[in-house]
Amino acid sequence: MVTVHDKVFVPFIEEEDIRKRVIEMGQKLSDEYRDKNPILICVLNGSFIFGADLIRELDFPCELTFVKLSSYSGLSSTGHVQEVIGLELDLTNRHVLILEDIIDTGRTLNEFLNTLYKKELASVALATLLLKPDALQYPLKVDYCGFEIPDKFVIGYGLDYDQHGRNLKGIYQLKD
Ligand code: IMP
Ligand code: MG
C-alpha cells in the first residue's frame, strides 16, 4: 500500500506486467509502422514514462513530439481541455500515433483529435496504456490498448494524484 496526500492506494499492475505488455504493444506497432516513419505524439504529463518505454521498443525510424493538454484537477475531470503546450511539428501527410497514459471519459483526446482531423494527415491512430471502458463518454476509436481497467482512480508509472505518485514503478489503485 502507498499513501499519497490523503488517499491510500493498493498495488494493481506490477512493473513486470507493464513491461511485458509494452513490449507486446511495441511489436504490434512495429508491424504496422515499420516503413511509415510515424510521428508519435506523447501527451504530457502522464504519458512521459509510457512514451519513453514504448518508443524504445520500436526498432525503425520514427519521430517524437509532445503536447500538453489539461482537463484534470484532483480526482475528477473538470470539463475544460486546454492546450498548454501545442504541437511543434508539421504533421501534413504524416502517419500520426497518439500516445496516452490513460483514457477515462475520453474528453481530452476527443477534443485533441478534432483539431487533428482538420489537418491533412496520412493517418492517425491512438495508443493508450490504460483504458477505463465504463467511464468512456466519447466515441473514441482506441487502436492499441495496454490494459482495460475498472473505473477507479489509479496512479503510478507517470500517472499522478495531484502531481504526486508519478514516480511509482507499478500502477496502484485507490483503495475502497
Ligand atoms: P479524460 O479526458 O477524462 O479521458 O481524462 C484524460 C486524462 O485525465 C488522462 O490523460 C490523465 O492525465 C487523467 N486521468 C484520467 N483518469 C485518471 C486516473 O485514474 N489517474 C490519474 N489520472 C487520470
Ligand atoms: Mg494523460
How would you portray this structure in words?
The chain has 176 residues and is of the alpha/beta class. Helix content is 22%, strand content 38%. It contains three helices and ten strands. The chain has helices spanning 15-33, 48-55, 107-117; strands spanning 2-4, 7-13, 39-44, 63-73, 76-85, 95-103, 123-131, 144-148, 154-155, 171-174. A hairpin with a 2-residue loop joins strand 1 and strand 2 (7-13). The chain starts with a strand and ends with a strand. The relative contact order is 0.22.
Map the helices and strands.
Elements: E1 2-4, E2 7-13, H1 15-33, E3 39-44, H2 48-55, E4 63-73, E5 76-85, E6 95-103, H3 107-117, E7 123-131, E8 144-148, E9 154-155, E10 171-174
Parallel strand pairs: 3-4, 3-6, 6-7, 7-8
Antiparallel strand pairs: 1-2, 2-10, 4-5, 9-10
This protein binds inosinic acid and magnesium ion.
Distance between the termini: 12 Å
| Percentage of residues in strands | 35-45%
> Strand pairing plus helix content: what structural class?
alpha/beta
The Cα radius of gyration reads: 16 Å
* Helix share bin: 10-25%
Number of β-strand runs = 10
- Uncertain regions spanning at least 5 consecutive residues: none
Biggest sheet strand line-up? 5-4-3-6-7-8
Mean pLDDT: 93
Bound molecules: inosinic acid, magnesium ion
* Largest pleated sheet: 6 strands, mixed
Q: What is the tally of helical segments? A: 3
Bulk shape: globular
SSE series: EEHEHEEEHEEEE
What tags apply to this protein structure?
binds magnesium ion; single chain; four-stranded antiparallel sheet; 176 residues
